[in-house]
Amino acid sequence: MLAPARKVLLVSRDSALASSTRSVFGRSNYATFEHIDANVRDIVNAPQLADAALLIVDIDATNRDELVALQGIMTRFPGTMPVVVLTESFDDAVGRWFLQIKVSDFLRKPVTGEEIALVCTVLFGAASGGTANSTVISAFIAAAGGVGNTTLAVEAAVQFAKVEAAKNATCLVDLDFQNDACASHLDIEPRLDLQEIGKNGERLDAQLLEVMASRHSSGLVLFGAICNRGEPEHVSTEAVLRLLDVVSSRYEQVVLDLPRTWHPWTEDVLHASDRIYVVTDMTVPGLRSGKRTLQRIIEKARPDNPPKVIVNRAEKQGFFGNGIRRADVERVLEDHLAGLVSNNYPLVREAIDRGVPLEVVKQGNPVTSDLKKILFA
User: Fold this and answer.
1) Model confidence over 64-81: pLDDT tens digits?
2) Which of 7, 209, 260, 272 could form a disulfide with 142 if both were Cys (CB 3.0 to 4.6 A apart)?
């Protein structure tokens, strides 16, 4: 049961919205409601914010001063209070920025008091198992085809799920909407219906998201699209950002499996990610592709979040070996090398065929051990 008397604070000059929301919360037994009739610029240091359990801020996303004020609030309460943003319009850049500063959710106006109450219910539920703003997004992107990007993304999500204290705190999101590789690896049915969530993701909320979750026996939650390979699905940048926003409000660890092909939304997703892993293999073409992909991402990603490269299927070379050595890999990738993951194709193939994590096939296997050293270094 949700704890009573948690204060929901709305900052808005919209009196009709305040009245509607107050009416809904008047029937609530889990939260109280307070409204401040002010502009966000005027309340950054307001004492009323300190005792709020959840803050809802109505802003003009085209007004730079209001965006700066919002950032000031997020800096004042870093990860300690869920913040929901209401705005009439925003572009992809602003949506990406909302994700970067880690607002808990953002809704396009007009909204109703019932919609706001639903978001608050979800965020209070998420907060009971961990702070909603503490989400870590890890993105895996392949430098070339067939380098094992999906295998490592799936295994990374499995490992994160093992160390998270809260139940169902980790999810895997398959952003390759033309395939269902993650679902195939786990031998489960994808349930993310792209048509149902709307062209721009406007229908997607926390309740609908949970309906579209695919659950693996290991406890991992997957969001993978129901795909029709005969009719490629166009997914807008706004829909992808909305998906990440709703997922981030519910899960503490989010792992993304990105397609190798660069889409209009790829840069936005990378900007929203906390960790970026480029996956390649230990071949000359693989290292060249890894270097090119790395450089492209460096040009597009945030300066404070440099990508790292995972070299998959690494072979141990003997003293007289003629293959690529670790020293060669380090020379090519320099400080961007995250680590090497051992080659064990029979193990990976058996795990995929059975739809289970690698450690179910062989506990303490070198593939998982190498990956864990990278993820938890």
Assistant:
1) 999 999 999 998 887 778
2) 260
